[in-house]
From TrEMBL, chain A:
SUPFAM superfamilies according to UniProt: C-terminal domain of transcriptional repressors
Lineage: Bacteria, Pseudomonadati, Planctomycetota, Planctomycetia, Pirellulales
Sorted UniProt keywords: Iron
Protein name listed in UniProt: Ferrous iron transport protein A
Gene Ontology molecular function: transition metal ion binding
Domain Ferrous iron transporter FeoA-like: 19-87
Natural source organism: Roseiconus nitratireducens
UniProtKB/TrEMBL annotation, chain B:
Organism placement in taxonomy: Bacteria, Pseudomonadati, Planctomycetota, Planctomycetia, Pirellulales
Name of the molecule in the record: Ferrous iron transporter B
InterPro entries documented for this protein: Fe2_transport_prot_B_C, FeoB_GTPase, G_FEOB_dom, Gate_dom, GTP-bd, P-loop_NTPase
Keyword Membrane in record: yes
Residues passing through the membrane, by range: 250-270, 301-319, 326-346, 358-381, 435-462, 468-490, 525-547, 644-664, 684-707
GO cellular component, one term: plasma membrane
Residue ranges constituting the FeoB-type G domain according to the UniProt record: 18-193
Gene Ontology molecular function: ferrous iron transmembrane transporter activity; GTP binding
Signal peptide: none
Length: 97, 711
């Protein structure tokens, strides 16, 4: 199953920009920073949305659907705007188009 | 909340205390299924004093798997099912309890921790395991859902995983029962009497991490999962397309409505027969006990100890059920009441037993089949992974009024009965969201309102089923709209703030286990019955006393038992209270007899029907014969000759019962779940005011249009 496999970690980031998870289209991104505070920060991080980790946006909308470590996660746009991300070059090798 | 003493008592009670074994895991890894598979019928709810979270526990034997069963050594363990959690940093009251229980702050350090991980998703579910392993507790890792993983082509190498984690690892399937014996043996090896000292401290999984500890844990878990699992050819069913539809904005909503409708159709069609069986059984029990009680006044010296002792026994049973502790105050009160009951005239005692105790409990237990069916299907839907999609779809709508998407499951349950709905609100993480949900739940039409609706429908539209159906739909809709608008108003006033934004795991679809649904249903049914046997019993007895005392003066004669019953109700505290509040309810079109019905229906709403039947002189049996009651009610006229049950009054009564908080048992549960009477009182006050104002507007508008003269 495609969503199970993680992309190779060796892919290099393109350029550093301050995009948030709320602003991107479907595809793989790497989390840079979680700017949420308090309980929201814990709620995001403990499900694997934390700096350095790769996540895939599967379905846009509010709430949106992410693929984090092989699990689907529903995330409200409001929380997504606290997650700064950078695109991963060349998409994820193991992920479907 | 520091209650270590209770645990000390618990463990000191029996000579060899069973070792405590905690079952820990992420939500959605099938932890409770595994608990049910191991514990079966031995499970019971453990109430820890001072916390509202119910933990389930079971004492069961674990044994070494040995060829020779004669020399098989066994050991008893107390297995505790902790609420699911994603990490030891809690984000909800339940998770906090779980985290404190694991760390030993609550109830002491456990003898063994079984961490349940999901074989289909090792990387993410191992994150919690890394946190637990760092606590250096004796740990066993159970890799659940192994059958689902294998059908997807995932091979888990438990020996390699065990090596990496430094603890025993067992592959299990709670659904098929595979690996359960091995799991029991692993637990046995950890807790067996000759247990060596704690295993050597494990190297910290995230040693040297300076950044986000979660990221380091996830990276570690990826490494471990990668080394111990192999992804082969997948044989599983691909459900991506289904998920796309079920989570889409419009199709998802339609699917959710269809699922909800089917569940309710099943509840109302399947519960019919068991409900009438329960009614018959209680009626039969009432008759039998009535026969058993002596008809002639006995020797007082002989009778007093029997009556007082049986009253004491019932009180002790209720205390045990509710796990209330005996204090000097409650003890004295129980003894005093028992003495009073012993001194009662025989006729009063008979009435107390048959009408107060048996009748009162029957009125609530009759809803048990609906609650059982509801929880059976909700558990199936939850296990299948659908419920999270429902919450996801509802989030878009509910967020606008300040409710979280997860509130939809409690709202679904509340349409059967508010009590299980309020208990289901525990799945909502944040306190604010949970509170708002609990406060608005009783506005949703529960099945105890249905007999009242049926009566009003018969009064208004006896000859037109279509109009009656429309009236029913309108009443349901009114309750729903009132609940959503109240949530919105609460968001702006008492419970300020937005619903906390959603981050929700959408678990994989999987085949639910009937066995697990069955055990969960039994557990819920027991919680409900415990409520009925204690709190509801008390409320029934108090309301019985209000409707019975003071007794009519002996001197008067009555033409029949019926007129006597009517007169004695009028003379009682309940009747006097009805008279007292008559001016308050007069603008709503209610006379004092309806007010008596409203007061007595605090035990359960449907009591209104039987009370009206008594006050209007039909007797208890009149309530069973809807036609008879309706005809009698139609013929009632006020002093000026206008009908009592005019169209305006009927609609006013309907609106009042849709919106009013006419249910003391619900109030008790609200208090228990919110931890304070404050919220129960707020709930009562706002609902009663809302009901009063709405009924007032309805009555006055219809009366102005001339509908107060016609029926």
């Amino acid at each position: 199953m495609a969503t199970l496999s993680m992309p190779a970690v060796s892919t290099a980031p393109v350029a550093t920009s301050s995009l948030t998870l709320a602003e991107i289209g479907p595809g793989w991104v790497r989390c840079q920073e979680v700017t949420a505070v308090g309980i929201d920060s814990i709620r995001l991080r403990r499900l694997g949305i934390c700096p350095g980790r790769l996540v895939e946006l599967v379905g846009r909308g509010d709430p949106m659907i992410l693929n984090v470590s092989g699990t689907r996660i529903g995330l409200s746009r409001q929380l997504a705007s606290f997650v700064q991300v950078e695109p991963v070059a060349g998409s994820a090798p193991a992920s479907p188009r | 909340m520091n209650q270590p003493s209770a645990f000390a008592e618990r463990t000191a009670a029996s000579p060899p205390p069973p070792s405590t074994v905690l079952l820990v895991g992420n939500p959605n890894v099938g932890k409770t299924s595994l608990f049910n598979a191991l514990a079966g019928l031995r499970a019971k709810t453990a109430n820890y004093p001072g916390i509202t979270v119910d933990l389930r526990e079971a004492v069961l034997p674990v044994a070494a798997v040995d060829d020779d069963s004669r020399c098989q050594a066994t050991s008893d363990i107390c297995l505790i099912d902790l609420p699911g959690l994603y990490s030891l940093d809690p984000a909800s009251p339940e998770e906090e309890i779980a985290a404190r229980r694991i760390s030993g702050q609550l109830g002491g350090i456990a003898d063994c921790v079984v961490v349940v991980v999901d074989a289909t998703n090792m990387a993410r579910t191992l994150v919690l395991a890394s946190e637990i392993l760092e606590l250096n507790l004796p740990t066993v890792v159970a890799v659940n859902l192994i059958d689902a993983a294998e059908s997807r082509g995932i091979q888990v190498q438990t020996d390699r995983l065990s090596e990496r984690l430094g603890c025993p690892v067992v592959a299990v399937s709670a659904r098929t029962g595979r690996g359960l014996a091995e799991l029991r043996e692993s637990i046995y090896q950890v807790v067996k009497p000759t247990k060596p000292v704690l295993p050597i401290a494990r190297a910290s999984c995230v040693a040297g991490c300076t950044g986000c500890p979660y990221a380091a844990r996830f990276d570690w878990a990826d490494g471990v999962a990668g080394a111990s699992t192999q992804q082969g050819e997948s044989h599983g069913v691909q459900l991506e397309w289904l998920d796309r539809w079920l989570t889409s904005r419009w199709v998802g909503l339609v699917a959710l409505l269809a699922v909800m409708f089917s569940v309710f159709f099943l509840i109302f069609s399947l519960a019919d027969i068991p409900m009438s069986v329960i009614e018959t059984c209680f009626g039969w029990a009432g008759d039998r006990i009535g026969d058993l009680l002596p008809h002639q006044p006995l020797n007082r010296l002989l009778w007093f100890p029997i009556a007082a002792a049986s009253s004491l026994a019932v009180a002790a049973g209720a205390f045990k059920l509710n796990e209330t502790r005996w204090t000097p105050v409650s003890g004295t009160l129980v003894v005093l009441v028992s003495v009073l009951i012993g001194l009662m005239p025989l006729e009063d005692f008979r009435s107390l037993v048959i009408e107060g105790v048996i009748g009162g409990i029957a009125g609530v237990v009759v809803f048990l089949p609906q609650i059982c069916i509801l929880f059976f299907f909700i558990t199936l839907l939850e296990d299948s992974g659908y419920m999270a999609r429902g919450a996801f779809v509802m989030e878009r709508i509910m967020r606008r009024v300040g409710l979280p998407g997860k509130a939809f499951v409690p709202m679904l349950s509340a349409h059967a009965c508010a009590i299980p709905g309020i208990m289901a609100a525990r799945t909502i993480e944040t306190w604010r969201d949970r509170l708002v949900t609990i406060l608005v739940l009783p506005l949703l039409t529960c099945s105890a309102r249905l007999p009242v609706y049926v009566m009003v429908a018969a009064l208004l539209f006896g000859d037109s089923p279509a109009k009656a159906a429309l009236m029913f739909a309108g009443a349901y809709l009114l309750g729903l709209i009132a609940a959503l608008s109240t949530a919105f108003v609460l968001k702006k006033t008492v419970v300020r703030g937005e619903a906390s934004p959603m981050i929700l795991e959408l678990p994989r679809y999987r085949l639910p286990s009937l066995r697990n649904a069955w055990f969960t249903m039994l557990d819920r049914a027991f919680v409900f019955l415990r409520q009925a046997g204690s709190t509801i019993l008390l409320i029934s007895v108090v309301l019985w006393a209000l409707a019975t005392y003071p007794k009519l003066p002996e001197s008067q004669d009555y033409s029949s038992d019926l007129t006597r019953a009517q007169a004695s109700l009028e003379y009682s505290y309940a009747g006097r209270a009805g008279r007292l509040v008559e001016p308050v309810f007069a603008p709503l079109g209610f006379d004092w007899k309806i007010d008596v019905g409203i007061i007595s229906s605090f035990a359960a709403r449907e009591v209104l029907v039987s009370t009206l039947s008594i006050v209007y002189g039909l007797g208890e049996e009149g309530a069973d014969d809807a036609r008879g009651l309706v005809e009698t009610l139609r013929d009632q006229t006020a002093a000026d000759g206008s009908p009592v049950f005019s169209t305006a009054t009927c609609f006013s009564l309907l609106v009042f019962f849709v919106l009013a908080m006419q249910c003391l048992p619900t109030q008790v549960v609200t208090k228990r779940e919110t931890g304070s009477w404050k919220w129960a009182i707020l709930q009562f006050v706002y609902m009663t005011m809302l009901a009063y104002v709405a009924a007032l507007v309805v009555y006055q508008t219809l009366a102005a249009a001339g509908y107060d003269q016609i029926t």
